[in-house]
Specification:
The complex is a heterotrimer of chains A (290), B (308) and C (328).
Chain A: H1 20-37, H2 39-42, H3 74-110, H4 112-126, H5 130-141, H6 145-173, H7 176-182, H8 187-223, H9 235-243, H10 252-286
Helix pairs in contact in A: 1-3, 1-10, 3-4, 3-6, 3-8, 4-6, 5-6, 6-8, 8-9, 8-10, 9-10
Chain B: H1 2-31, H2 35-38, H3 47-55, H4 61-73, H5 89-123, H6 128-141, H7 145-159, H8 174-200, H9 203-210, H10 215-232, H11 235-253, H12 258-267, H13 271-299, H14 301-306
Helix pairs in contact in B: 1-4, 1-13, 5-6, 5-8, 5-11, 6-8, 7-8, 7-11, 8-10, 8-11, 9-10, 11-12, 11-13, 12-13
Chain C: E1 6-19, E2 22-35, E3 39-43, H1 50-58, E4 66-74, E5 77-78, H2 84-90, E6 95-98, H3 112-122, H4 128-141, H5 147-152, H6 160-173, E7 178-182, H7 190-207, E8 210-215, H8 218-224, E9 227-232, E10 235-241, H9 242-247, H10 252-260, H11 300-304, E11 310-313, E12 316-318
Parallel strand pairs in C: 3-8, 3-9, 6-7, 7-8
Antiparallel strand pairs in C: 1-2, 1-4, 4-5, 9-10, 10-12, 11-12
Helix pairs in contact in C: 3-4, 3-6, 4-6, 6-7
Classes of the chains: A mainly alpha (290), B mainly alpha (308), C alpha/beta (328).
């Protein structure tokens, strides 16, 4: 990890770039997204098409990733499964980021009682595993993708809120806000122009890490049959089905969905780590000491 | 100091009450509002229900809630609410113990392995070990727990036959604990590594070197000691994640714990049991978080001073 | 005060760091000596390289800093070639150092007595009890009255002035031959600054300890130093005995620094002086003399060639093409 030395007056940071690991992550992730989006185009099959003639066949030219016990093409199911994981992940993280941002800013900015109450609330939410929230929702509203999304979203809020609050407090600690207030600039403008830009860059790094967690959560819930109902494919679900066949040798039913999950999450993590390093180095370039 | 603990405990009680309240409300609306339904069919009306009748709360929502609170939760007896063959409280606590043991052992193991690994990676920053550790961290941290469990089960139980496939008591917990540890190790290792790296960059480390101290002393006595503390603040969320993981691996490895009970009950559409499981797990998670919080405050000299 | 053998010889020291666009030199050929008992001041603005060269002498350059040229001799030994174990023997024992932010330089999780004890026992074979005794005595000597209480504290519970006294005590416990003080009073208030400076001066005189006193404050240099090196843009622009230099500065920058230092209580009433222009950036040095854009005596040659240090009187040198001409 590159560290800044005690150099007097660094001028002009070089153009920030992602390192190799992060670029690899970016490319892989792009591939996954493209696969998900272009699923209908990439395969001639439907994800639900049963074909009793071709049950549990190993990978071949017609079925590059094999078929499952109902004769459904695995490649198709994995590609469509990508949609589930990515969409739910995105939505969940989006909700969490938004709610977390509001909560964190409110807590950091208003301070005092509001801060205490909000943060205690966040502590309580953080103490409850997402599985329980998902189960609770499932009891109420059935096992749907929507419930899954909400559950994962809620469980991620405290993390975002804590980050937003820390960043707000950090920015508020810097003296220039007092000066601006003295000039009569309204608080909302201060918030917008100064607090927000500082938050955004760090938020993005957090976003990617949260996304990785969300995808893992989706697959876990999918494995437990919470997320989607058959015949719609989900990677965790595929693994649950395919596991039985490990012993009898049909390895492709577990390896490929597992790989799909691994590749997706690893790429997101690599990208996230790279972004964090990028942000750290840019922040360092601006705060030189002599 | 004690005021702080008291405040935290109070808030914990408050949160838990909220969870109980929520759980109960859901149960209430699912089952209907008859108080006698909460009683086991064979039991006669007891003193508590008669008291409620006296006050005029019998049969109302508030009355049922108080009954639920005082009769079941306060005494930790869920007989009658939990389905059929599992009514015995002993079974419930046995199950609870399995879950708890898995969860706590996994976190303990992950710290025992992860902490030294993270420190080693940080002190040899940029070296071969560091890169390998970073790669493994990203790798294992990106695998869903259940998948790791499945792979391990297949490898050790089915193929190599080292570990029994069916449940035989505590030894069967080995594989689940290993599974849970693997995911958590990546967390601990990377957290330890960045904490140590950050600490070693600080001024007092340089000042310690300026005294002419041996480098090993500088790193361990001053560096590592100061790095461990911030790690403790992540202990709470680690335990929460491990708890979820414990529930999931029970499904994978067929361990009779709270998680397994919950999932079975879901399949049987026995939502009362599900809610009780949720309650128990939420309470456990909340309690763990408060304990780690207090522990952290206790150990941190800076915060300690604030309350002295 | 006896000024005797040469302890430290710095010859043509070059230190560079990795900047945003390649390596940048922060120290560009610095040479000086420190003798036994001598208090040498190194004065300059932020970014002049004064701290970087000091860290090099201790082998404590951080981050991407590297010594790229030159030699440093301690009692004749080339220390830049030292192995780690040799550095460990040198630091604290032969050359000690105190820093600008004393609170940050103390381990926040260790009570003061343990850190002092560590310093005392580091280079000598004494028992814990003897070490603790020494620590208490030393604390008294640096002006701490309530020693028992202070020893038990954690650094976060102590003021900046108190922490700096502790740091000084820690350094003196190890009885170094040279003490490097890197802006030791910059983060303290004026009252505390005066106390600490006086105390430092007295203690070092008592022990005949050489001091490298790094500061940006010419006033402090006048207070405590015997000789001074004025640094600008990584080079020494003037060197010599304090009294002589204050009497007649040879380099325009030195003159400017002295003019810019306000003198309270003196009868002079007049405008505040500052040096024209802005401090130079090390990654964008002008050709010729680094100071020429800000110099009121700038001539053509100053823009083209960088002047070397010229010894124009015994014991005094300056790096200026206008050396010898009257400058005020």
């Amino acid at each position: 990890m590159e560290r800044k030395g005690r150099l007097p007056s660094l001028t002009g940071a070089g153009k920030p770039r992602l390192d190799t690991a992060a670029t690899v992550g970016l490319i892989l992730l792009a591939l996954v997204v493209i696969g998900a989006v272009l699923a209908p185009v990439l395969t001639p099959y439907e994800y639900g098409t049963l074909d009793t003639d071709t049950r549990t066949e190993p990978p071949s030219w017609e079925h590059p990733l094999g078929t499952d016990r109902f004769g459904r093409d695995q490649l198709t199911r994995i590609l469509y499964g990508a949609r589930v994981s990515l969409l739910i992940g995105m939505l969940a993280v989006g909700i969490a980021a938004a709610l977390g941002l509001l909560t964190g800013i409110a807590a950091g900015y208003y301070g005092g009682l509001v801060d205490s109450v909000l943060m205690r609330l966040m502590d309580s939410v953080a103490a409850i595993p997402y599985l329980l929230i998902a189960t609770l929702i499932a009891i109420f509203a059935g096992f749907t993708a929507r419930g899954t999304t909400i559950a994962i979203g809620i469980s991620l809020v405290p993390d975002f809120a804590a980050l937003a609050r820390a960043l707000v407090l950090n920015t508020l600690g810097k003296g220039f806000l007092e000066a601006e207030r003295a000039f009569g600039i309204p608080d909302s403008v201060i918030l917008f122009r100064h607090v927000l830009p500082n938050i955004i860059s760090q938020y993005i790094a957090k976003f990617t890490n949260a996304f990785a967690e969300a995808v893992l959560a989706v697959t876990t819930l999918g494995y437990l049959n919470y997320a989607v109902q058959p015949p719609y494919p989900e990677w965790g679900d595929l693994l649950a089905d395919g596991y039985i066949y490990i012993v009898s040798g049909q390895w492709w039913l577990t390896v490929f969905p597992g790989l799909a999950i691994l590749i997706t999450v690893v790429s997101v993590n690599l990208l996230g780590n790279g972004l964090s390093r990028l942000i750290d180095s840019r922040a360092g370039a601006n705060g030189g000491r002599s | 100091m004690f005021r702080y603990i008291l405040k935290r405990l109070l808030w914990l009680a408050f949160t838990l009450l909220g969870v109980i309240f929520l759980t109960f409300t859901i149960m209430y609306f699912l089952r209907g509002s008859n108080l006698p339904v909460l009683l086991s069919p064979d039991e006669p009306p007891d003193g508590l229900s008669r008291a409620l009748e006296h006050v005029g709360l019998y049969g109302t929502y508030l009355g049922d809630f108080l009954y639920f609170l005082l009769r079941y939760v306060a005494r930790l007896q869920f007989t009658g609410l939990v389905s059929g063959k599992l009514t015995d409280i002993n079974t419930l606590s046995t199950r609870y113990l399995y879950t708890l043991i898995s969860c706590l052992s996994a976190v303990a193991v992950s710290w025992i392995v992860g902490l030294p690994l993270g420190i080693a990676a940080a002190t040899r920053s940029g070296g071969f070990l560091d890169n390998v550790v970073s790669a493994l961290t990203v790798g294992f941290g990106s695998m869903p727990t259940f998948w790791v469990g499945l792979m391990l089960l297949m490898l050790f139980a089915s193929k190599l036959r080292i570990v029994p496939m069916l449940f035989v008591g505590l030894p069967s917990l080995i594989l689940p604990v290993v599974t849970l540890s693997l995911s958590n190790i990546s967390l601990v290792t990377s957290a330890a590594r960045s904490s140590v790296l950050e600490t070693l960059d600080k001024d007092f480390i340089m000042a310690a070197r300026a005294k002419g101290l041996r480098e090993s002393l500088v790193i361990w006595r001053h560096g590592v000691r100061n790095s461990v503390l911030p790690l403790l603040s992540t202990l709470g969320s680690q335990l929460t994640k491990a708890l979820t993981g414990a529930l999931v691996v029970e499904y994978v490895f067929s361990i009779p714990g709270i998680g397994r009970l919950m999932f079975d009950s879901i399949s049987n559409r026995d939502f009362n049991t599900v809610l009780i499981c949720i309650l128990i797990t939420a309470v456990t998670s909340g309690a763990i978080n408060v304990v780690t919080d207090v522990l952290y405050t206790f150990i941190n000299p800076a915060v300690k001073r604030r309350y002295e | 005060m006896s000024v005797g053998t040469v302890l430290l010889e710095v010859r043509n020291l070059h230190v560079s760091f990795r900047g945003a666009r390649g390596r940048v030199e922060a120290v560009r050929g610095v040479s000086y000596d420190i003798r036994e008992g001598e208090v040498l001041g190194i004065v300059g603005e932020s970014g002049s390289g004064k701290s970087a060269q000091a860290y090099s002498v201790m082998g404590l350059l951080r981050g991407t800093g590297r010594v790229t040229d030159g030699n440093v001799y301690f009692r004749g030994e080339d220390i830049l070639k030292y192995e780690r174990y040799q550095w460990e023997a040198l630091r604290g024992n032969a050359i000690g150092m105190i820093f600008q932010d004393p609170v940050a330089c103390l381990d926040p999780m260790m009570p003061v007595y343990r850190q002092l004890r560590e310093a005392a026992m580091c280079h000598s074979e004494i028992s814990r009890r003897a070490a603790d005794e020494l620590c208490m005595q030393m604390l008294n000597m640096v002006g701490v009255d309530d020693t028992k209480r202070v020893l038990r504290q954690f650094p976060s519970g102590l003021s900046g002035g108190m922490c700096q006294r502790i740091m000084i005590a820690m350094a003196l416990l190890q009885e170094p031959q040279i003490l490097i003080a890197d802006e030791p009073t910059t983060s303290l208030d004026v009252m505390m600054q005066a106390q600490i400076i006086l105390m430092l001066k007295q203690l070092c005189r008592e022990r005949n300890m050489a001091v490298m006193f790094i500061t940006h404050d010419m006033g402090l240099v006048a207070e405590i130093c015997d000789t001074v090196c004025v640094m600008y843009a990584g080079r020494i622009v003037e060197k010599g005995p304090v009294l002589d230099i204050f009497d007649s500065p040879a380099h325009p920058y030195t003159a400017g620094l002295m003019r810019a230092t306000p003198n309270l209580g003196v009868d002079e009433k007049g405008p505040m002086h500052s040096i024209d222009g802005v401090p130079v950036s090390m990654s964008g040095l002008p050709p010729g003399c680094a100071f020429h854009p800000r110099c009121r005596h700038c001539k053509d040659i100053c823009r083209e060639k960088e002047p070397d240090e010229i010894e124009f009187t015994h014991g005094r040198s300056a790096a200026c093409w206008m050396v010898g001409k009257e400058l005020r």
